[in-house]
Amino acid sequence: MTSNKSPYAYLGLWRNPFGELTPHERAELAVVDTARWEALLSDPRCVIQFVGDCGFGKTTTLLALQSRLAGSQRVYFPEFGPRPALPRSRPLLVDEAQRMGWLRTQRLLRGDGPLVLATHVDLASRFEAAGFRVITESVECQKSPAIVADILNRRIDASRVQGCVPSYPQPVAPLDERCAQRILDRWGHNLRHVESHLYEELQVCVREKLPWPLSN
Amino acid sequence: MAAVELSVELHDPDKVYLDGEKIRGEIVVRSEKNVTCRALMVSTAWSTHGRGNVDRSTVDETEVFSGSWQAGQQYRYPFELTTASWPPTYYGNYLNVSHVVQAQAKLAWAFDPKASVEFVSWATQIPEDGQPQRAKGPTPLVLKLIGATFGIVLLGVVGAMFLFLVPVLLIGGGIVWFFKSYLPRSRTGKVECALEPLQARPGETIRGTMRFTPQRKLTVNEVRYRIVCEEKCVSGSGSNRTTHRHEVVNEPHALVQATELLPGTMQAFEFEYRLPTNAPPSLDLSDNDINWHVEYRIDIPRWPDFSQKLPFRVGLGPHRVGGQSSDGEQSSGGPPARAPSVAESWLAQVAEQLRVSKEDPQRRAIVLEAIAEDDFQMEVLIEEEVGRPPEAADRYGGVWFTGVETESKEKLIIHFSGGISQPPVHQKWQGRVAIIGFIPNSEQLICSAFSQPPRI
User: Fold this and answer.
1) Cis ω before B390 (30° cut-off from 0)
2) What is the value of ipTM here, to two decimals?
């Protein structure tokens, strides 16, 4: 996108890269080794569960997989309100699987996969007892600076204005691993928190017309 | 290398498009390979970006080409599309609204290239319902009836499930009412707050009143009103739903300071508040809002305060397009609506009024007299020491410096009297100043510093 109107233009951006994304953008920009999971999901008795707290990338991983798995369907279980029906299509991606309830869990256990679950609670024992092969991935495991730099740089690139360099006074340079490590040291590994803090920091820079990232 | 590269060129990229005007330009296609294009689509759209869930809509769309492109060739396709009449372009802190022309080529057996360019959209009128046009058709009546029936059944089922919570909710609600309403009113009596108009435009004045009659002697720390403009953006969904709020304007004003109010005597307070000329317009988009309200407060020591919020809507002011505003006044071109700081909004207004009165000394004198008792908190980048300007012949002693106000970029000549430490040149200085004059030729404000500033 080209823009001379936006306050972000002096950075070569058309928006703050760390704001909210559409689900489609989140899937497109996600750093997920989908090839690794796709190979496993050829087995109809396979269940992959991503376990962890909010903000570590469970839903983003499911969105990325959904965009790459032909015929897949994603279902989300809210905290309150009626629970949706389970689609019949496979692979089936279940977001907030710990909220499914007994009835829907039984339906999944009696049926076939492949299944991909995003859950706060480890459901492996139940699915293994039903004869599934369960692969558990903890999303809270610390992400390497290289991966974090890749995640953030994808968001920055998606927010760049066309013809960025050399047309704009202070275009945002790609973040390197050292910068990513400083970000992790400062704000931890919860990516939602990292993005929230980076959003605020960049907004301050935009108000003051400072370069970003700051040298510290 | 991509098979095809697209770009969008507007005929008038700096124009501000009003009220759904047509936008014209060309899609430029550079083909690196022989390709078949099933459709080259161009559309206008608006979209929010920032902390809230993205809200967007396509406004107009057309196909400008389908066919073959040869390697090494460049093609140009003109287009003319309608722009959105609402919402207007806005750049804030948590909420931004951008308008774009976007092009996409649907290629056979290749990645579909895209390109887009941003433009500024403004409006002179707000839609009656405050809602933007959305590209969807009317919901069939049958679907509406099904939806309503389902909603009623769901409400009954959920209501039955949560029946046990009713006493808890009643008790909780009662406690809130007791502290926020009953207790304050036991001291103040019934408080009547009013505001008019409930819909105003930037630069216009709103008037508020507060009346109450205390039933017994009432000591107050302060009676005040506060003007608030807030960006409210919601991100996520379900249990991850988070509301982000940013106050664009937060101006408290005291109506009365600490005092004792006699029982049985009606207390009446009135105020007038002039909205900044670049006040953000009220916006009601999906998960992205800009809301204005006045909050009245009676600050009672060692007792719950009385407070009441009255919302009001702010429309759009005349937009300055190429020297001519949409209401006929001559003025310079202006940027899209963006969140102003308090100091910037007032200073910008004053500076603009002085520039407009460049050729009219009488009008200039009226403006200066109107602000004679006002002062502004400023941060100024001090440039160099200069002599006393002729327009300030009545000011003796002290030193004069040229400078630039860092936020608004207004050019200044600023006077520091003998009692104030001289600022070092080429550094920033912060403090309070009064505007005492204006130099028409150089469009410089003449200011006088009158507080001991902290150095930055």
Assistant:
1) no
2) 0.80
